[in-house]
Amino acid sequence: MSLQVVSTISNSSLLQPGFSLLNFGGHVFFFGQKGWPKRSCPTGVFLLDIKQNELKMKPAFFSKDSCYLPPLRYPALCTLRGNVESDEYQYIIHGGKTPNNDLSDKIYIMSLVSKNSKKTMFQCVEKDLGGDVPEARYGHTINVVHSRGKSMSVIFGGRSYTPLAQRTTEKWNSVVDCLPSVFLVDFEFGCCTSYILPELQDGLSFHVSVARNDTIYILGGHSLQNNTRSPSLYKLKVDLPLGSPAVTCTILPGGISVSSAIVTQTGDTEFVLVGGYQSDTQKRLACNTIVLEDNKIEIVERASPDWTPDIKHCRMWFGCDMGKGSVLLGIPGANKQLISDANYFYILRCKGAEEDKEEELTAQICSQTSTEDTGDSTPFEDSEEFCFSAEAHSFDVDDTDTYNEDDEEDESETGYWITCCASCNIDINTWVPFYSTELNKPAMILCSSGAGHWVHAQCMDLSESMLLHLSEANVKYFCNEHVDLNKGLQTPKKVGHLKKQPMKPLRKKATMKLTTPTKKSFLRRLFE
């Protein structure tokens, strides 16, 4: 096993813990950036161009009939083939976290449409499911099993937010283990079925799952409820007859107490397990070889690489399987007393030079590694990262259209957890809903000053009725800091109607009106 340093580039900050790798035709594509995609790459999918130990990222594109795919971190991924021998395959993407920390329950099918030296085109389709649809989650696994000429996907484990009915003010955004149910997903008919197995008592997340034919092996993982890393090794066997599927579980000896490990395939039946954590305060630097043969699994310890001092002494690490026995490992730049966004990457090659050649991968691999940025959560298990296998190659493509993060403005400020003003007191770790329309993120409103910026409605002391009025009315709003500069355009305050004083009636003009008796008396006096 050899370890090689990858040169750092200007946009390496996009490769934060929680990303995934997709492998199409021997080319590695990055998915799940930190923050929302920018104008230079609205899809959020990049080609990783590794050339002479330098890593560059080039934007990929979606076809016109594709759906929107958010930059999900810690999702479950696996390949979907028509049959075991098929060369063509698609990727299944399920669950994960958005940049706003919302959890996704959607499932996407991603296919390669075309690729040349200048442009890569994908098709992304959201799949509608019915039946026992799995709840929104992250840190789980998805695998594909083949039995009796049919194929199904299997979803297991992960974490989710506390159910709404069980939330309290103090633990509104806390996460819990998902129930240890096994979900079978039939993509041909779009239906899901859940199974409760007595052997699976506790929820698991950030475990490793390796599938071969009709069998899935689940290794390690972390349980939040018990705060333990299970040493159990589970064997799930799925039978797909003409009638209802049958799922059985067997607990095998010889497991490893590890979480957030990475698995890479080095042979037709051989895999290597690296990385992860063996406790809350200790990384696991040992490595193991996993051998799958027909109906059994064998796990043996193997020689570890010569880890660098930076890797040995860092508190956290993250990485992904790159395929063909290679793993991409990263450590935070803060360990080298530089800016925290500047991560440092290594390529770990688990195969010898004579074995590093093209070969077909017949097994499905799905593994997770943890280490989200420390600002979002606690170290190790609660920091969570998720990854999948891909291949590392030197790509013979031009350097044109290379993504450069410095070419455009940072649009990550549009998130819900920004510091919107000097007096902003919204904190992702302590925030609780203030308005009745809020659930797991604070309400925001756009200030129309200049190019516009978002502010928290609670920080602006807006009442709920006023917030609803501004969201429905076609008026401009200016925050407390810019309201004095835009008095002519600010939202008018509600002013009571002036009371009008009733007008006094006009007096009638005095007129001299002679009545008939008056005329007669006048003539009488005239002739007397």
Automatic annotation (TrEMBL):
Gene Ontology biological process terms from the UniProt entry: chromatin organization; V(D)J recombination
One Gene Ontology CC term in the entry: nucleus
Protein residues bound to Zn(2+): C420, C424, C447, H453, H456, C459, C479, H482
UniProt keyword annotation of Ubl conjugation present: no
Subcellular location: Nucleus
SUPFAM superfamilies: FYVE/PHD zinc finger, Galactose oxidase, central domain
Molecular-function GO term, any one: zinc ion binding
Pfam families reported in the protein's UniProt record: RAG2, RAG2_PHD
The entry's keywords: Chromatin regulator, DNA recombination, Metal-binding, Nucleus, Zinc, Zinc-finger
Keyword Zinc: yes
Limits of the Recombination activating protein 2 PHD domain: 415-492
Signal peptide residues on this chain, from the entry's feature table: none
UniProt record similarity statement: Belongs to the RAG2 family.
Name the UniProt record assigns to this protein: V(D)J recombination-activating protein 2
Classification of source organism: Eukaryota, Metazoa, Chordata, Craniata, Vertebrata
Gene name of the record: Rag2
